[in-house]
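Q: Structure tokens for this one, please.
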Amino acid sequence: MTTSPAPKTTRFPIDGGIAIAIAVSYAIVLLRTTHDLGYARDEGFYFQAAQAYGKWFDLLFSNWRAAIDLKSVDAAWAANNEHPGLIKSLFALSHLVLHKKLHLFSMEGTSFRFPGIALASAGVALVYRWGAQARSRLAGFIAAALLAAMPRFFYHAHLACFDAPIVTMWMLCAYCYWRALRSSGALWPILCGIAFGLALDTKHNSWFLPFAFIAHAALVHIRNRFLYAGRGESPPENKEAKRALLALACMAAIGPAVLYALWPWLWRDPVGRFRNYALFHLHHEYYNMEFLGRNYWIPPMPRSYAWLMTAATVPAVTLALGIAGLWARARASFVPPLVRAARLLVAWKKRADAPPPSPPSQVSDARASTDLLWFLGIAVAYAPWLSSNTPIFGGTKHWMTAYPFLALFAGAGFCSVVAAARRVLARASEKKRRPIALTLARAPYLPAILAACVLAAPVVETARSHPWGLSSYTPLVGGAAGAATLGLNRTFWGYTTGSVVDYLNREVKKGGTVYIHDTAGQAWDMMVRDGRLRRDIRASWTIAGADFGLYHHELHMQGQEHQNWVAFGTVAPAYIGGLDGVPVILVYRRPDAAPPPR
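A: Here is the predicted structure, written as tokens:
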């Protein structure tokens, strides 16, 4: 297989401008929808860590010699050292520079969330860029829009967490690898190594990237051998395999160096501390998760979890187009070598020569290589859930790195739908002599009409899901109500407290106490600092003695609701928050808890 032609650089000004516009537009939407989204438990922990890192950065800017002293480093970076430092560093710098110095955000919590928002938006833009280069602008735009309009991705894109950033970093590394295969020189392999280092310093999902790229290089080589077998000649020099090896070598050499440089916690003892970090995740504590009416805590976990939850949470239109695109590209790229292998087997059994195949073109080779890389991006992300030992407590966020590749196939599938629609309309105009059908078949605005039809449902689903992102389910399972009936998890992380702050501000007496249940103390404090909660309302860690009690519905926490009944002498909540009539967070009230004076 020869080196595939490089992407057209002359298109960069237009495609680059479109990508920037997509990123800015999505970031604006995310920023405008943060005010009513409560803070997740993990965000609270990362706020605390980022503030510790922020003090270190302050010292670095004022006295760098004191800052790089290992005692100073360890004192600051010991916080939350079970997770890499890059994204929390961005949280810290955003809070330090954009909030404290430039005063760009009205709510302090948004300054911590902004790096995640920016990276998620960049990821959506990168999907467009890759889709436009590999297929067409139309395919890239549809892919980007479908990723942006996934309710679970939209929720995570708001957060000061690592789940949306690792989607972008994973994508960036895969894109740099893809560009490395299609270029000469060392630039893109080096960028691939740097991107891998950034991914390593984002989240442990990055550990699976080399497996995807090694499998890609090997399978492309095997496909090439099958296509040329029986032609009486050797395959052309496989430059793509050599470029893949160069990219992998750069990942191995540069990636760990970037991780070490950008995570000061490793500076004192890089091997020992990385080992501790790896062991923490390889032997992670199991948490509870409801699935089909059963609470799972320890293995064995259900192997169907990832697949069913994907079907239940990704809009059906996106899934259908993704499967259609994957099927169409599989037929075009991988059926020919399989057919060739079958012919060789038959010829071998008959002791005859197989008919020589027609040589593949550079374009078909390049597309097949891209298709395989996208497929492996999906397969590797889902692979851990083939094991019954893999925890399921994080829900869809743990395989969310697959979603950009699913969206890219969906973009390709949409282009196939447009082409099929043109053919159908053209045939209809010929058979029944309908000029309107012919006009539509040739109309440049037909893709826009079909795009509006395709995007309408995912956009509406995503808009309706906010701010209840983890409670959102698609009509395929009956929406939120159907999912509750099926026994699918309604919520976790305690973030829905943000949806009852208006009630609490209105009803809690001055100096009153609220049992905050699953909400992290740091998350509650941030809502107070934001001005979303009255400062005089006090958080309580016990129901006894509290004026109000929160209950975030999870199957394994039903005992907490019973404790509210006993403490407050009632089974009737004073306030219920939820999605589409499904209770997600309930507020119980002490009968004698008088509201503040109006």
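A few notes: The chain has a mean pLDDT of 91. Residues 403-432 form the longest helix (30 residues).
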